[in-house]
Structures are given as structure tokens and as C-alpha cells.
User: Fold 2,3-bisphosphoglycerate-dependent phosphoglycerate mutase from Roseibium limicola.
Amino acid sequence: MERLLVLVRHGQSEWNLKNLFTGWKDPDLTEQGVAEAKSAGEQLKDMKLEFDLAYTSVLQRAQKTLGLILEELGQQDLETIRDQALNERDYGDITGMNKDEAREKFGEEQVHIWRRSYDVPPPGGESLKMTSERVLPYYRAEILPQVLSGKRTIVAAHGNSLRSLIMDLEKLTPEQILKRELGTGTPIIYRLDEDGNVLSVEDLAG
Assistant:
């Protein structure tokens, strides 16, 4: 029995383009983001992959990315579960701030710590550790059992919610996951064993 899990970060959003801390805000995809999502769908279609179940966050950039992928696959009616457990990391008080302006205001080193440390949150926001503590219980309780039952599953979410999953799946250290860059609109394909361990991983970014 195949146990297939595909993770994909949403396509470029309007706030990605403007270099803003986005978090739980809800900007739309850019034209490039739409194209990235369609391309992801085409890649999966070329691999003859189809899905039994889909998960996404409550934010439209992830939902629209998923919708465009499923459209390419001819699976627009696929059962889709939306949950804020899969939302992006909450950037708190720096949400909506331009990253360059944040560096000017708080200093390069402080912004780097907020962005790239594992357990130091920005004011009023979440660290990657806190994001993981929200994402992983949901994954283990809701998503993993479906995958282990043989349901081919796709998750369209966000850079940091997906980093939380990747860290767990690939058994990475905090230092390793913080260096992991996730391309927008790029599927990562996992095949798991009966215990949820990774048998193979294929990142379609190349």
C-alpha cells in the first residue's frame, strides 16, 4: 500500500512581493503566484499523481494555491479540510512591516534572530518552536492517520508551518530546519512506511 504525502508552499503572495512580514494576514496570490500554483499542478499531473484528501490553512493564499493545483489535476471536488493549525507563523507586532524597515527600526541582528532563531518569537508573535507546537499535534492526530490508511494526501500551507512538518518528517535539528528554504509553489513528495517514517522524499524544485 502506498502512503503518499505531498507538501506544497503557497505561490507568491502580494505581501511576498512587497517583502512584508505576512503571518496570519490574508493577502491574495500575485500573477506569478497563480502561475507557480498551476505549474505545481502540471508537475504532479505529469507524474500521474492523484489525491484522496487535501488539507490547507484558513488563509486564501494557501487555499487558492491548492485550488489551482487540483484544477490542473481535474480534482476540483476533492474533499478539502481547512484548519488554522496549518496557518503561517504569527509574526505578531511586526506583521505587515517591510523587512528592510524592520531592520532599520530594530537592527539587523535582532530581526535576524526573530526570523532565523528556533525559539525566540517576535513581540506578540510565534517562534518556529511555537508554530511547531501548533502544527505537529494536528498533523499527528488528523493528517498522519489518513496517510497511513492509504489516502494519498496533499497539504498546501506556508513556509513555517511546512518547516515544522519537514523538521519532524526528516528528523532535522532546529539548526538544520532554519537553513531549509522552501520555494513558493514547489511540491515536496514523501512516501512513508507503516509507522510514518520517510522512505523517500522528492523535492520538485530540483
